[in-house]
Specification:
By secondary structure, the protein is an all-alpha fold. It has helices spanning 8-11, 14-35, 45-70, 83-106, 109-113, 118-144, 155-173, 176-182, 186-211, 221-248, 257-291. The chain is flat, with a radius of gyration of 21 Å.
């Protein structure tokens, strides 16, 4: 099949211009980080999160822009009503987290003391610009496709993406120090099982929606969503309860300050994700009741 290039107006449309800005800001961001002195960086899980966010969504945005320009949407075995806005929303969340985590956890304090972190400060600013660009794309896609939007453009679709994002942030916060100090608690391992299972259920839901495979399910998919949401809420209650108990445990005062900080972050994100799953459950039950 010959390649049919699109017209130039595709690349000059507002949405394409925003995507080009996303790629530009992302490229500048990770280029500045790579060119900075490695001695000023804490190359731990948060550094990997930041680099992954900038590089992955730079490549993904480029592929989406290329597919739309070449007009290969019909050849991609994914729903084009759901894919771009899903990736844009996830990109906005991931670049926001990178913009916050990079100056807080990646840049060392010695860099600020020597006043020699111009590249890193500039990288943080461009990362914020990248976040604003992805946010603009989400808004533009939502407004443009409101009349014929897919599931991922709705509130439940956004909730699914947010659930995946929260799970990723929890996994990043469970670093070596947390593992070394909490392995003696059985409920700690149970919480990791909860986060992994709920993460996989949310990812599978998104994949099914992107592949438009809901009609192939033997059970009505809205009931599957309601069951998944109910299971996730129950499991998250137990996991969140463990982290709340661990946070207020008097023995926590004997632990390092960094361990308490990571525990607090995991607890807050767990509570936030529990609320997200609860709202998602309410939408799922409403959908089931509406269709019955």
């Amino acid at each position: 099949m010959p390649v049919i290039l699109g017209e130039a107006r595709i690349l000059t449309s507002p949405q394409s211009i925003v995507r080009i800005l996303e790629m530009l800001f992302g490229c500048v961001t990770f280029s500045l980080v790579v060119s900075a002195e490695s001695s000023f960086l804490n190359k731990g899980p948060h550094w990997f999160l930041c680099m992954f966010s900038w590089c992955f969504f730079f490549v993904l945005t480029g592929l989406i822009l290329l597919v739309e320009f070449v007009q290969f949407q019909s050849l991609v075995p994914l729903s084009w009503k759901n894919l771009p806005i899903s990736m844009a929303f996830l990109g906005a969340l991931m670049t926001l987290s990178a913009s916050v985590c990079f100056p807080l956890f990646v840049i060392k304090e010695s860099c600020f003391e020597r006043s020699s972190c111009g590249h890193l400060v500039s990288a943080t600013i461009f990362s914020c610009f990248s976040f604003l660009s992805y946010t603009a794309e989400v808004y533009m896609t939502k407004v443009r496709s409101e009349a014929h939007s897919g599931y991922m453009s709705t509130t439940p679709g956004f909730l699914k993406v947010f659930e995946v994002f929260c799970s990723c942030m929890i996994f990043v916060s469970v670093d070596r120090e947390v593992l070394d100090n909490l392995t003696t608690y059985p409920l700690f391992w149970w919480s990791l099982v909860v986060y992994s299972c709920c993460f996989l259920m949310s990812v599978c839901t998104i994949v099914v929606m992107l592949g438009e495979c809901t009609g192939r399910c033997l059970v009505p998919f809205d009931r599957i969503l309601a069951a998944f949401s109910m299971l996730c809420v129950v499991m998250y209650v137990t996991a969140t309860g463990f982290w709340l108990w661990h946070l207020v445990n008097p023995q926590q005062k004997e632990n390092p300050q960094s361990l308490w900080r990571n525990s607090l972050i995991i607890t807050i994100i767990s509570c936030l994700n529990l609320l997200t799953y609860t709202v998602d459950l309410a939408f799922s039950i409403k959908l089931v009741c509406y269709r019955t």
